[in-house]
Amino acid sequence: MELYCPRRRVIAPNLDPNTAGIPQELYDIDTTGTNVSYSLDLDRTIDTYFDGTTWGVVSPGNEIEVPVWRIAISEPHVDTPNPDVLDPDAIVDIDNSPIALRDTLPDTLSFNPELGNPNALDEIGANARNLKLKRFVFFTDYADVTDLQSAITPIQDITRQASVFFSSSGATASLFPEQYLTLAPRMRTTFGSRTYTTGPVGPSEQAFEIQNTAPAVGLIQFDSASSTLTPNTNTNILPGLSLAISGFPAGDWTNTGVTSPDGIGLNVSEPLPINPGDYYAEPTNRYVNDPNYPVTDAYVELDIAGNAIAGAVRDQPEDMRVSGPIRHLTEEFVPNAADPMLGTVLNYRTAFLQRLADPTRGYHPTLNPYRTVDQIAIDLTIFSGEDNAGNVTKPGGDPPVPQTFEGDYATESRQRDGVGINGVGINVLFSYSTERPNLDAMLPGGLDFFNVGPAVSTTFNYLNENFGAPVTTPIRGRPAVPFAMHPWLNRPYATPHELMLVPACSAGRLFEEFSVVNAGDPAIQPESSTATTDPAYAETFISPFRHLLNFFHSENVKDSSAAPAAEFHSVFEFVGTPPPFRGESDAVPPAVINGTPLVDLYSAPFNFVEDNRRIGKVNLNTIEEFSTWKGLMQGHLNAGEYTSATGTGTATQLSYNEFVKSRRGYVPTGTRTTVIDADASTPVNYLPNQLDPRFPTQFAGVFKRSTAGHAAPEVRNLSTTAQDESEDLRRRKVNVGLLRAAGRLDEQESSGGTSPNEVSLFVRASTQTPVVGTTNLSQDRNRNAFLKYQTVNRMPNLASDNSQTFLVRMTLGFFEVDPTNTNNLGAEYNEDKGENQRYHAMFIIDRSIPVGFIPGQDVNARDTVVFERYFQ
Hints:
This protein is α+β, with helices and mostly antiparallel strands. The protein is 10% helix and 19% strand. It is built from 14 helices and 36 strands. The strands form 13 sheets. Strands 1, 6, 9, 10, 12, 16, 17, 22 and 23 form a nine-stranded mixed sheet that branches. Strands 2-3-11 form a three-stranded antiparallel sheet, with no helix packed on it. Helix 2 (145-152) links the parallel strand 9 and strand 10 (164-167).
């Protein structure tokens, strides 16, 4: 199996200053060198308190180190000729496999099997679907059986240490960013023996070998001519990491120092040595007394002529003697067969990459279980490496036995193909889609008994073929088209709009639902739907990214028959992020509120109160200068938008004029129209360079709370369109806030609410600069939600739709007043002598500061004055 660390590799901190912070609950960080380096710590463990019956009880001596990461491998699920006679204790039907369930449970498949939960694979529990987890991989090393048994004691779904395979080579399971990790059953795995006519001549040169020295580092593949098939890791790809994964030998083996010095290699087809006799009989001999056969792994020793000189030739294969997976599988195809079936069984088991939900806390079966991060199907190929396949499958024997079955063989490994959901998108790293391996018949001839051609195609240690050829610069091994993946904000949110980046699915479904935008700017509004069951409604509900909520989804309030919309944007009226400046929030010590009704409201971590003062925010409704707009949008304007209020070419969407047009709601016509008679339907425009006859204000598109978007007064119906124009000030709720569509009111949506604009003002359209081409593929906004939403996400911290702070200037003068006529002022006091005086003062008032009000009394209104200055 192969794993990949998707975190971005840093060449040098000074050359790459924008790399996101490293979550130290998962990564090791090394600051001892010239540059900081970090690696994913797969063998990390966490203290778990377990007293034999209860989890979380802290007491000396009951803490157990439990792995944070693991791989869980399911029971077999097979498409057999006789599904009605399956042995449910050995094999389940193929319909229970995640690959099949992706079709039958497309929206609710959890990818998270659970012990004792028959509905675990269906998130809504409507279908009885589950898989038993039979084998496990830990990345930690264990000294002995007792050590391993102790580690699994708290883990509810692992009861036998024999089902656990672990990193036994002593190598550290520490994975650098953009590095591949391969898990192999031993340091070198060969594909049987070379062909011979008289006696064995040596193992096959087809092999996978773990190498740790240049020029090739990682799991290296060799063909039958002993040529390396893996690209050079010094020049073409980055060095990989490979671990030998094995379990402890069978408990009834007595000579393990000779027969299994490195344990039993990771596998999905051998029996598990749970009880004495469950596993193969312990080997007694070297197959040939020759340096090419150094391991004691046979029951007979042959000379170079093929004659038995020690041990005894066994008449029954061990796989068919014991009650193990291959015997169960073979008998599903050929009952009572004497020899194992041959060929490839696709989708034989499923491997689930799992992690503790909270890696900083101990395991708990309910509060902190293992959750699926990734999964992939495992294919099983059974081949004869010591004899021709025809000799294995031919009938005969005394007494005669049924002829066993031989199918086609996989000529390549199962690989992720980078295809997004519904076949949309390429190089999608977050995808469960795999390419079905090609199957072909065994080729005649060749150097080895197992001969599927010049090379079994794999890409261990480097980029899968469907992602294209790996580049060599600037980081060798990367794809030419960058991976599409989801940015994970492992930090406190900076703005409430970052909720738009929270996946709308479970961790196990993220790779199933992750999507990219195919092209252009997809529909995000339920324009023509009258019911939520309309297919078009469903398409817009999950647009533009299926794995995220559509916060732009808003109902057409001008059509009483329109389907209700999600209106997820309304949540922004009720949530916020802590203020960024010191002194704006105060912690509430628990002792202060103990015994009061406030305990439920202000318990940690919610024990903070804020002063609700919005310091430094710009009121979008009062911006009147281009320079103010440039300062607000610094870093998010294209060059044309920054230098010109109108923008230029394809750099216009965030220009100052477009912003003003959106706020004003129209473009002044420049045409003066007057009325001589009392015809109420005739347009009137006395200020053609400022007003529009349809609207009684220059702020028809004012920014305001989205929950009030539908509330607006009626205006005259000028009958310039077939639709009723009297409701043109009413809009979809989303179109009054920061998520509004771009353009004038009649461009955001036509009269009657039809033809909504699918481009948000603060979300760059696909046709706007930067337009993605072959030289800037990393800037493709349709493949990265963070890039697409980065401008709108920053706005809540910088702008508001109202002003809280005001500058008040006051001038005080003295005038003569006739007490009998106080409606008129007289001359200014001492003006006739040139000694009149005026006093000036300046105040900054923050109306967000709460103050009391009692008519006729001065309570604490002066608290709103945060700055005052007097001039004379």
